[in-house]
Amino acid sequence: MTNTPWLACPNRRFRADVLAGLSLPQKRLPAKYFYDAVGSRLFDEITELDEYYPTRTELTIMTAHAREMAARCGPRCLLIELGAGSLTKVRLLLDRLDQPTAYAPVDVSGEHLRGAATALAVDYPALDITPVVADFTTSFDLPSVPANRRVVYFPGSTIGNFDPHEADALLRRVARIVGPGGGLLLGVDLRKDVTVLERAYNDAAGVTAAFNRNLLVRINRELGANFVPDTFRHLAFYNRDQSRIEMHLVSTIEQRMRVGSATFDFRAGESIHTENSYKYSVPELAARVTACGLRLDETWTDAQNYFAVLYLTAQ
Ligand code: SAH
Ligand code: AVI
């Protein structure tokens, strides 16, 4: 299904990234590793929370404008979704698209993706669905079907989980994948009141905290580590200078942890930086995408200007 070499031996890459990240002066772990089967389920729970406005808001925008979005995609398109998760939002688009030739959802969370694709196939029996288990920042295979246009659907503001220079590289990669005249339908979370932002990542039920700590549970299971997740506190705050929510796991005690044969010392209060979630303004984003070879054709937002969905054309 994919030619991404580390997916043939995913643990080796996971181990190398964890060892490298925990060796940095500010310990860091890549956010993509949140998404094992449990992490994907916890993310789905997050999307249902009152505090987590992005999913609800993007769905409102999609519901109101799916017809216009589908018209932008045009007839007989190959639809490629990045970070596809549970394949929920795309249904609004699929319901309006004019004879899509195929749909290729791409995600690192293999078990979750395959389950979601099977469920989608029941509801869309005529649709050619090719799930692709891959890291979308690397090269991956796509179905070779004739299509009038390739369109990448990249919802959820997952673009915000990449540092700006990585986001630019990803946008350029998308422009290459779809080719000149191809499209990108991009969902992006916008800057807003800090209280609203911080509430979204500090829910009262502790689901986001469990999602954050699950990374340690996964490292224990897959890499033979001995983290005690309860000795790490969930921390999420808005960094105004960088326009991003930062998530950390803060060691509440001084401790030495083992990952395989490597050891890592933690001071009480020392953190592992686990995720950034950048928040953009539409003009800033328009400038970025233009510099990456994409033309902004249309922007849809909600009444509160919390979230935006953009249609872009590769030049
Ligand atoms: N698109 C869904 C899910 C967003 S959660 C929504 O809008 O609700 C982010 C998704 O991106 C997860 O399913 C995760 O597994 C996937 N993901 C994160 N980084 C990835 C990467 N580098 N390559 C492929 N998938 C990735
Ligand atoms: C997938 N991504 C855009 C989510 C976000 O809001 O940054 C992941 C997430 N992290 C904590 N809550 C949700």
Question: What tags apply to this protein structure?
Answer:
four-stranded mixed sheet, binds S-adenosyl-L-homocysteine, seven-stranded mixed sheet, binds N,N-dimethyl-L-histidine, disordered N terminus, alpha/beta, 315 residues, globular, single chain
User: Strand tally, please?
Assistant: 13
Give the biggest sheet.
7 strands, mixed
Radius of gyration (CA) equals: 20 Å
User: Mean of residue pLDDT?
Assistant: 96
Question: Spans of 5+ residues with little confidence (pLDDT < 50)?
Answer: 1-6
Bound ions, cofactors and other small molecules, one mention each: S-adenosyl-L-homocysteine, N,N-dimethyl-L-histidine
Strand content: 25-35%
Count helical runs: 10
Order of helix and strand elements from N to C terminus: HHEHHEHEHEEHEHHEEEEEHEE
Outline type: globular
The share of residues in helices is 25-40%
Which oligomerization state do the chains in this entry correspond to? single chain
Secondary structure category: alpha/beta
Q: What's the arrangement of strands in the largest beta sheet?
A: 4-3-2-5-6-13-12
Q: Kindly report how far apart the N and C termini lie.
A: 29 Å
